[in-house]
Design brief:
Elements: H1 4-16, H2 22-64, E1 70-74, H3 82-89, E2 95-110, E3 113-122, H4 133-136, E4 137-140, E5 151-155, H5 156-162, E6 169-180, E7 183-197, H6 202-207, E8 208-212, H7 213-220, E9 227-232, H8 238-249, E10 253-257, H9 258-261, H10 263-301, H11 303-311, H12 316-347, H13 349-360, H14 381-398, H15 400-407, H16 411-415
Parallel strand pairs: 3-8, 5-7
Antiparallel strand pairs: 1-9, 1-10, 2-3, 2-6, 2-9, 4-7, 5-8, 6-7
Helix pairs in contact: 1-12, 2-10, 2-12, 2-14, 10-12, 10-14, 10-15, 12-14, 12-15
Length: 418
């Protein structure tokens, strides 16, 4: 426990550089640089982490506007009688909607273009319960996907790449061929484009095709729905809800959630976030080296004062505490300033970016290239706490060596030439 004497002397030494004197003025300048370096490092780390969180949240939300939060599939084949199961699942903890689906892969043919795509068979009247696709249809209507019409809705990117419009025809080739006397013949069907959707996610806008579930079941010969798509009131509960459903439904059903389906992407984002955290934390470490330099210079300048304090009865431990207090106060001041600056910028990232775009005459995220036209930010208390803690710990560690040097000063040698 530090005594008031140690706090008082440490605080006095922290402010001593502001008084007159070239040497003290230079020490004060180094101290100011230390505070500024720590503050800039902390602010940069908070801002970058918030922007990365914002991008991750934006992409995740766009993905989950297309994907389901949880999927329930029958282990032995198609889910023939899906209505009773869907009715029993709706209204359970966190489950707000349920709808059947059929999924499969196809090869689409348009002129000389042949490419792969994903097909999702849906029930148009129930789709709004499990996704935002109904609101994302920009041309046509989801209601046009009637059973037996063999109509499809494609993504905007796919339509632009293939030059397709509403009313055009597109040939789809199923991977399961038809057995004939001549061998296995690929099964091809012409579908009419009834609409175009735009989810804001390139992968789905360029590869996903929607059609009525009955048409999809006929085309892929599944015999009915493959499973149920569930939507939750809180996407973060998907793992817990999935585990609960596995226990309740038993081994006859397979349950998977959105985090499992996109595990590789989310793992890559987390690794990138950790690496960025480590790299930017080095800025704070560099600022801590400035803190070491400042304290070493202060100890050298205060050798006579240290000797006098020792002759008046101050113990080496008290001298150690005094300089640790001084260094820690500088670190705390820089951390506090950095947290305030970082939080302020992170909460107002839009106006800040807009100001620099106007000042420099450039557009950071052109709307014609990027779907996201504004820089997103998601400030999290946990990230701010970790950054502040690391900054304080590094500042405290930086005070140890200079403080030990101060505690090792011998009064007789320090006062010999005074």
């Amino acid at each position: 426990m530090l005594s008031p004497f140690e706090w008082f002397i440490g605080l006095r030494y922290t402010r001593s550089g502001k008084r007159a004197g070239k040497k003290n003025g230079f020490i004060s300048f180094i101290s100011t640089l230390s505070v500024a370096g720590i503050a800039l490092g902390v602010a940069a780390l908070i801002i970058v982490m918030s922007v990365m969180n914002g991008f991750q949240k934006e992409v995740r939300d766009r993905m989950l506007s297309v994907l389901s939060h949880v999927e329930v599939l029958h282990a032995d084949g198609p889910l023939q009688d899906w209505q009773p199961l869907a009715d029993s699942l709706r209204g359970r903890d966190h489950i707000t909607g349920a709808a059947p689906f059929v999924a499969g892969q196809v090869v689409l043919s348009r002129g000389e273009t042949v490419r792969g795509a994903l097909v999702r068979g849906i029930e148009p009247s129930l789709e709004s319960q499990v996704s935002d696709m109904t609101e994302q249809v920009v041309t046509g209507s989801m209601d046009a996907l009637q059973p037996g019409s063999f109509g499809i809705i494609i993504g905007r990117v796919m339509a632009e790449q293939l030059g397709l419009f509403e009313g055009d025809r597109l040939a789809l080739i199923a991977p399961q061929g038809t057995v004939s006397p001549a061998g296995v013949v690929p099964r091809m069907k012409q579908f009419v484009i009834r609409g175009i959707f735009e989810s804001g996610h390139y992968e789905y806008d360029s590869t996903l095709i929607l059609m009525n579930m009955a048409d999809a079941a006929t085309f892929f010969r599944t015999g009915g729905a493959m499973g149920l798509r569930l939507r939750l009131d809180d996407m973060q509960q998907a793992l817990a809800v999935g585990e609960q459903l596995k226990k309740q439904l038993g081994p006859a059903y397979l349950v998977r959630d959105w985090s499992q389906e996109n595990r590789v992407w989310f793992a890559a984002v987390q690794v990138e976030k950790r690496m960025m955290f480590i790299i930017l934390a080095l800025i704070i470490a560099v600022a801590a080296f400035n803190l070491v330099s400042m304290l070493v210079m202060t100890v050298t300048d205060k050798r006579a004062d240290i000797a006098i304090l020792r002759t008046l009865g101050a113990s080496p431990k008290s001298i150690l505490s005094i300089f640790m207090v001084q260094g820690s106060l500088v670190g705390l001041l820089g951390t506090a300033a950095g947290v305030a600056l970082g939080v302020l910028v992170a909460l107002n990232i839009g106006p800040v970016v807009g100001f620099f775009e106007q000042l420099l005459g450039v557009r950071l995220l052109p709307p014609g290239i990027y779907v996201i036209s504004a820089l997103p930010s998601d400030l999290r208390l946990a990230d701010v706490s970790w950054v502040a803690l690391i900054s304080c710990v590094l500042s405290l560690l930086a005070t140890i060596y200079p403080s030990l040097r101060a505690a090792a000063v011998r009064p007789a040698e320090a006062l010999r030439y005074e």
